[in-house]
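Task 17 of the worksheet. Students: predict the tertiary structure of the chain below and write it out as structure tokens. Keep your answer in the requested format; marks are given for formatting as well as content.
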Amino acid sequence: MSKRFIGIDLEGTDVRVAILTAIPGKIDIELDKRSYENPAAAAVAIKEMLGGKITLRDRLITALPCRVGLFRRLRFPFREKNKIEAALPLELRSQLPISLEEHVISFLPPRAREDDYEVDAVVVNKREIDELLTHFPDPEQNPRRIDLFPFALLPILREQDGILVYCRRLEVVVALVYDGMIRDYRLLPGTSELNEEEIFDFIASQVSQLENTIGHEGLPLWIIGAGVTEDLLVLLYKTDRPLLTPAEDVFADKVSYEMAPAALLALSEMREEKKSGQLNFRQGEFSARGQLEVFRAKLIAVALLTLLVVFVGAMVMHLDFLQKTRQESSLKQQMETIFRQIMPENSTIVDVPLQLESQLKDLQEQVQLFGLGGQGAAQVLQGLSSLIDRDIRVDFRDFNYDSDGVNLAGNADSFEAVNQIAESLKTSPLFGQVEIIDAKLAADNSAVDFQLQLKFLNGGER
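Model answer:
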């Protein structure tokens, strides 16, 4: 199954979904939209739009609206991530009149300036994240990342200077994209009570002010959002500015203004998948559960369901033999009690044995992804941990496992460290081939990004 990159845009009572799949020569896109009355209905709608199932290979991303974030641009005399993480709360407490204990902090990679480093940091209340997660069918794992508009769209927009005009139904964001960054942005909340001319006046005023900050005029405008109307477009066209559609080279005319945010979220995740240069509010208590943790729970469920299927099968055979109505009724009641303890809540009882067998088969298919022989994911991870020298700093960002081997992506301090890691892994009895397929300096020259391909040993030969 191809890997899917899924952008989900929640606004008001609408949920919009864009699914991108890379196929030879192009990117396939599927778009869908549903309305919902409550978070539970939104979760059902999302699952239906994703084909009824979310796999471990799917990458879901969503973004919070701009109005819920508090943005600050800070400077530090260092660029190390751990030092910035330690210093950020102290600096933000001096600038924001809020309790940081009730908020989550995320920041973008530092940018080198003359004598120090510039960091864009955003603070979001935990309530906003908690409420957002209630709209997803499996909030413990998805979405994998929660960003914030307009920063979530930066991977698509930073290749060209311009101004993003993002018209949501409840707010308008005007953001200046300059020199590869969100230079500044302006927010107008409560736009549902304004007409097109009032919204246009705000946009025109803020565009002019933002251009004055950099001494440029006539920058192109990217127009997106469900709040874009025909009347507003007419007013914008009269400014004689170029009006652009983000990622037009990828989507052409397939994506409407309303569906553009979801599509751009998915495309951003596709382009930045192996990097860690975006905001992410899925951290701390909101962190997505690890796949191995989910796998362990599924193994336990498989074992319990296996025993239960055997037990229920025996009970069914015994029921065929029993003739007395009282005994049959009692056994059926026991089966239904066990069914309700094992199966998900709100499951409708139709045929207990068949339903349990179906649940067992579904879980077994998921478990097969990790392997249950001598080369299971848990054993591979244990082998990696024991073989790599503890003095070598290595940060693995991606772990792709299949029946043939493992693809790893991460970063280390130097090319020598990458070579040492590869040589260490060659001594493992698990792998018949270890190959460095890519190694290059990171954009900030602070580390070496690399990819390793590990082939499992077959037949005992290297």
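Marker's comment: Residues 291-321 form the longest helix (31 residues). Residues 377-456 form a domain with the Gyrase A; domain 2 fold (CATH 3.30.1360.100).
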